Amino acid sequence: MKMVALSKVTLVFAAALLGWAYQATRPPPPAILGAPGGLPITSPRVRLKDGRHLAYTENGVHKENARYKVIFVHGFASTKESGFPVSQELVEELGVYMLFFDRAGYGDSDANPKRCLKSDATDVEELADALQLGDKFYVVGCSMGGYVAWSCLHYIPHRLAGASLVVPAVNYWWPLPDGVRRSAYGKLDSRDRRTFWIAHHAPPLLCAWLTQTWLPTSPIVRGERGAFTDKDWEILTELWRKQRESGQQVDRAKATRQGTYESLCRDLTILFGTWELDPTEMRNPFPDGEGVVSIWQGYEDRIVQVEIQRHVARRLPWVRYHERPEAGHALPDMDGVGDEIVRELLLGAGEAPQSEPPRAPQ
């Protein structure tokens, strides 16, 4: 009798587990922007070829008068409102038009059920064409936006005048030397490793994992204090204080207003998925030196590990690699760094590419 009862309990448990797994792998429907009684649209948008819309905001000099046109790609759990720290003096000096947009599924931009590496690049291209930016433009990808910059370099290099990858997110499943992978992955918090492993090996379960409350998830994904260095936190705290005092505080909840699945989960499954391109085998889009590609990295960064950036830079000697020993993930928000990034991108000024970045373990 005990065996029969135990078998029934096991069967019920297995059925419940299967039911949970089935529900967990079914993506929740996205909130519909602009529908009656739904989420309001508060930004100008352009219509793409597949019928989706991308929301954008323009800054800097008027594009008709601009010498340089730069598209900025925001990071994880962020929106176009996050901007980029470029001084008004530099904008006016160089005549820079700046375009910020919400990536698919973020903010006021429609979700893309077929979103992938290539679609993120073609979104940038179609946005530029819809706003008549011309044959070529510059791209700055920050943090998670860095993978979009890699995608642009691969899929639309003919449209780029230059690209800067600022503390760009990395994929621990890129073709990497074992020593580099072990060193970088091993530095992560165990909760981050677990979450990234799910994103790579079991992506259908990722959304359920991120939204459950009975086990701890990734400090990086949650933006917890421990994911940042003391210097990072000091910089970010001061930035948030200035935003509050100026009445320009960024509404962080807007990033995921269409749901976690269409924003955060798609970011993570694309970043940590199996890429159809290898950044370390990327061809130089500017063989005659007519443009600049740069990587900016903080040595102390706890979110993006320096070992992988060094490996990529060593494999791509045409990339200008800048590593700041005192900086973390808030590198672009350090005094004057944003201007350095943009000035080098547009003028090619600054340090020459490092022929041999510091060597990582093999």
UniProtKB/TrEMBL annotation:
It comes from the Eukaryota. The keyword Signal applies. Keywords: Signal. Residues 1-21 form the signal peptide. The keyword Nucleus does not apply. Residues 70-332 form the AB hydrolase-1 domain. PANTHER family: HYDROLASE, ALPHA/BETA FOLD FAMILY PROTEIN, EXPRESSED-RELATED, OS01G0859200 PROTEIN. This is AB hydrolase-1 domain-containing protein. It comes from Panicum virgatum (Blackwell switchgrass).
